Amino acid sequence: MKFSIIRIYILTAFILTGTVASAGIFREKNINLKAEDTLSFVSPFAADNERCFKCHGQAKYEYANETLGKQVKALMCSERIVQRTLFYDSNHKNFSCTDCHSEEYTKFPHSGELRMEQKLTCLDCHGGDERFAQYHFEGIDSAYRESIHFKLEDDGFSCWKCHNPHTYKISVRNNDNLKETIAYDNDICLNCHSDFNRFQLLTDRSEINIIQKHDWLPNQAAHFANVRCIECHTQINNKIPVSHLIKPKTEAVKLCNECHSQNSILMASLYKFESKAQRKDGFFNGIILNSSYVIGANRNEYLNLLSLMIFIGVIGVIAVHIFFRIRKNNKI
Amino acid sequence: MQYTDKEHAAFVVGFAKAVRIHNLAALLLTINYLIYVSGNFLTGNGKHYRVRRENFLSDLMKQLKFYAFGMFKGEKHPFPVTEESKFNPLQKLSYILAMYVALPLLIISGIGLLLPEITLNKFFGVSGLIYTDVLHITMGFFLSIFMVIHIYTCTLGARPTSLFWGMISGYHRDEH
Predict the structure, then answer these.
(1) How far is CA A146 from CA A135, A139, A190, A246, B79, in A?
(2) Chain centroid, CA A154 distance in Å
(3) How many interface pairs between A and B have CB atoms less than 8 angstroms apart?
(4) In chain B, whose CA is at the least distance from the CA of A225?
(5) Which residue in A has a C-alpha nearest to residue B15's C-alpha?
(6) Which of A:221-280 have CB within 8 Å of B?
(7) Is this complex scored with an ipTM above 0.85?
(8) pTM, to two decimals
(9) What is the pLDDT along chain B (176 residues), one digit of tens a residue?
């Protein structure tokens, strides 16, 4: 009997704690971002775009300075660099640079006035177009206009602060890529909210500390890796694919039960993509189990029922026992 | 924690507070358990948990029959408490299952949930946290049931309170 108990301990300890290495393998697998056609894709405007990428495609550029009569090497401002590989993997990969930027940019040196050109917004191209109806750009725009971010428009906030038009790639969530989607989406937020250089453009605050601000969150690292910032910081909206109404920080979800309960809001946000196809295996919100596990949201209804029956049974047996004890004492 | 979504009900605290209380209680329980195991190994108390194979089942049945019928007929306790043997066969079995099977599994699975990064990520395509959590709540539930029965059986002494006094004083008061 002693040996059996030891065996059970070893097996349980192995399952629960001795698998850090294998867990690492799973995580490594998950990190591989899909880049289906990056290598095979050839833009019809590749040659035209190369005129821009020649200087803007990397940190260093070189040009012939006619005044000095020599070749000059210089460093490109980081904000003006567009990496070819990321651009040709993005949603806008089919475009020529001058589809969105002035044709005048093809001349070098660029005219100073070009810096003042009005930038396009998402709706300039995607608004009112049936081909993009499934993305509900108008709904996204309405939600954005109610968002805390919209209040910063006069200070320079725009769609591009989150969705870099040169690199943005829409991520369709499924069971295989959920972790990558979470990391990708959170990276969009952290791009400003963990980088003070960018953050200070839109605020007077003297510092930012995401980790400290979320100190109250139990298992902070697990939360950051398994849910998106927008799960707690946006207003759920079933009419658009991803909620764009960023709430003020005072209205962010702080009640654990909002996610860790049978009525988990994650079913309307992170797991919305397949929540209609419920898994039928006795678990509440079973569909979450396909890719993750949320304590409290994944209670098993059979176990709940069984435990209730056992508990009632035990109380019943005790009640009967008490009854006979009282009867015996009365006889005495 | 099971009922924290009914936050507005009486005696129910919020999830966040319940997590903190649960974590603190878990720490105290683990420390207590280590003291308990050390105590049993370092002192002679461990001998009371040793089960002998001969007559084990028949002794168990004797004890069960006593609780179910004998005690109502005024029969004598089949395994009276002595200095050499303070547990009856039913006590031995339930204490071994509770203290050496359920509680360690509860503690190990609890550590797995407290530190999810060390828990198996996936096992046969399903999150390792499911197995860990189901094991944790199942063991927690059985220990709760054990506690209810244990407290009730503690009232089966000479007087309903005499066994509780025995826990404090260390002396067993004979029924006769």
Answers:
(1) 18, 11, 21, 8, 75
(2) 26
(3) 111
(4) B117
(5) A256
(6) 221-222, 255-257, 260-263
(7) no
(8) 0.60
(9) 666 666 667 777 777 778 888 989 999 999 999 999 999 989 888 888 888 777 888 888 999 999 888 888 888 888 887 777 788 889 899 999 999 999 999 999 999 888 877 777 666 666 677 788 889 989 999 999 999 999 999 898 777 887 888 888 877 766 55
